[in-house]
Every structure is written in C-alpha cells, then in structure tokens.
Amino acid sequence: MKRSAVAAAAFALTLSVPTAAHAAAPSAAALAPAAAVVPQVLPIGVAVGALPLATEDRTGYQSTSFRHWNAGEQSADGCNTRAEVLLAEAVVYPEIGPGCTLTGGIWWSYYDEREVTPAGALDIDHMVPLAEAWDSGAAVWTAARREAYANDQGQPSSLVAVTARSNRSKADQDPAEWLPPSADALCRYGAEWTATKLRWGLAVDEAERERLLDIAAGCGGTDVEFTPAS
After folding, report:
1. Residue 211 to residue 177: CA distance in whole angstroms
2. How far apart are CA 207 and CA 131, in angstroms?
C-alpha cells in the first residue's frame, strides 16, 4: 500500500464547518452542529506505516513545559487528572474522601501483570512520555496544547495506571529502548503507543519505527484505534 494512501486512511476526518449566509439570516448549515470526529481503526501494520518519520531533537526540553496534573475533565469534582485516571481504571472502585483522597481500591498494571493496591503504589504513565513527545513534534506546540497532551483523557490509551516500578523503568524511552516486561502486554503496548502518536500527529525515528514494525509483524489481528486530537 502506498504511503500516501495509508496516511489518507489514517487521518481522514468527517468534519463539517458551518457557514452563515449573512449575519441577519444564518443558513440552516450555519445552525447545524459540526459532526463529531470519527475514531479511526487501522490494522497495526498499516497504522505504524502511517506514522511520519523524522529525526528526534530534545533541545530545550523541560518537564515543566507540560503542565500536569490539572483539574481534570470534571473540574468541579475536586479530583485532578491523576485521580480521575485512577478512578476510571479501577478494577475495584476506591472510596473517595475529602480532597479526592482515594482509599482502598484495586488496579491491574498490564505492563507487568500485577494487581495493585493502594492507589499510592501506582504511577500514571504517559504512554508516549513527555520528553519523547517533545522530541517527536511537541516542541513547536503552544503551552496550552502541551497541557492538553499531558492531561489527555480523550483517549484511554494516552494515560495508563501502572506500577511505579514499571513506569520508572520505562522513564522516557521509546519502544526501541524499552518494552513491558510481560510478553502478553506487547501487542497492546505497541498498538497504544502507535495510537497515541497518531492521535497527536507525532513522528517516529528510524529505530522506533523498525521496532514497531517488528511488533506489528507478530501481532496479526491487532487493531489500532485512535481519535485525532482537536
């Protein structure tokens, strides 16, 4: 399949932009809401092939360039993004105390196939780490877009609750440098990494792309689902 065709399949959106005939009498099209962005689903090999290839550059990176954790999707609930992700991913729901203190609860860390409790034993991993995002295109984003990336709950694979040990082992490494210790996690991890990069229009370098293609070759039947970020 030609790269142009793959890219077109990956990034095709069904968006409509309403326009008014004039201020006094807007047309029906102007009053109609824009269509929602449609999630894209691609076989993993096709999805990896749709990723743009570029040399990475970490010049100027600071973790403070990505504001996190902010007030989350539900700003009135008193829980920040970290807590909201924990609540969304809980296998056994915790009790929520004052200041969104989480007590009890059980989580599943798929990187290393471990059941985890309490909430404080978990890290919220950015599937594509902040430094890797910077290297891959986020360096030219606005501060607001970087904050949106760092707190992204619009796609479940963007942020994932895992053991602190596995997250800190991963650090800011890409799949050419680090993969989950559980072999059963490999296909999911490759798909979710690819989905996150496609969602945010981030590039891959040559070593990263080759490793993702290797993963895809062993993960037939795995799909990558992503929704392009607005």
Report:
1. 9
2. 17
Q: What distance in Å separates the CA atoms of residue 230 and residue 228, rounded to the nearest whole number?
A: 6
Main-chain dihedrals φ then ψ at residue 216, nearest 5 degrees: -60, -35
The answer, yes or no, to whether the previous bond of 156 is cis (omega within 30 of 0) is no
Read off the pTM: 0.84
Alpha helix segments (H runs only) across the chain? 3-11, 28-31, 44-49, 81-89, 130-135, 143-150, 164-170, 186-200, 206-217
Q: Write phi, then psi, for 68 (nearest 5 degrees).
A: -155, 155
Structure tokens at 229: 């970020």
pLDDT tens per residue across span 15-55: 333 333 333 444 444 454 555 678 999 999 999 999 999 99
- Cα–Cα dist 193/199, whole Å: 10
Asked if 113 and 184 touch (Cβ cutoff 8 Å), the reply is yes
